[in-house]
Amino acid sequence: MPKRILFTAILCGLFNACLGDDIARIKINPGDKVVFNFSGGGTLARFFVEDITADHNSKFNNQIVWEITPVKSRLEGRWVFDIESIEYGKIPDGYKQILPSDGAAPKLHDGQYMAMPETVSAGYRPVFFTIKNGIVLAAESQKD
Prior knowledge:
By secondary structure, the protein is an alpha+beta fold. It has one domain. 15% of the residues lie in helices and 38% in strands. The chain has 2 helices and 10 strands. It has helices spanning 3-20, 80-83, and strands at 25-28, 35-39, 43-51, 63-70, 85-87, 95-99, 111-120, 127-132, 135-136, 139-140. It has a 6-stranded antiparallel β-sheet, with no helix packed on it. A 4-stranded antiparallel β-sheet has the order 5-2-1-10. A hairpin with a 6-residue loop joins strand 7 and strand 8. The chain is globular, with a radius of gyration of 18 Å. The termini are far apart.
């Protein structure tokens, strides 16, 4: 293998390894507002909240209730560490709401939810959280 190709392959591998080690995670503190506190790396390409509450027949709702993406394109999101936190239903600068297509995000009822940050140039983990009696319970993305 020519030295130039070998050098390029090693350099790309090291660069990707550095980027891939920093996982974007979410922590939610208990309280009456759902605030997603971000840590880790990457740029936020998409963020959504999904209702995963099971009904009395054990059927899961699995419906995305709120979704945002960068205004320009998924590749032009802000750095997770720059955003720091997003309050449910409040659109951060540089983003647009995809769901619902009109109006405000629906109020979250008592039940189970999943929030997913999709990032570029870093891994990501969902966070599962519960709302009980109108209060969000503490939750944190799982670590490896």
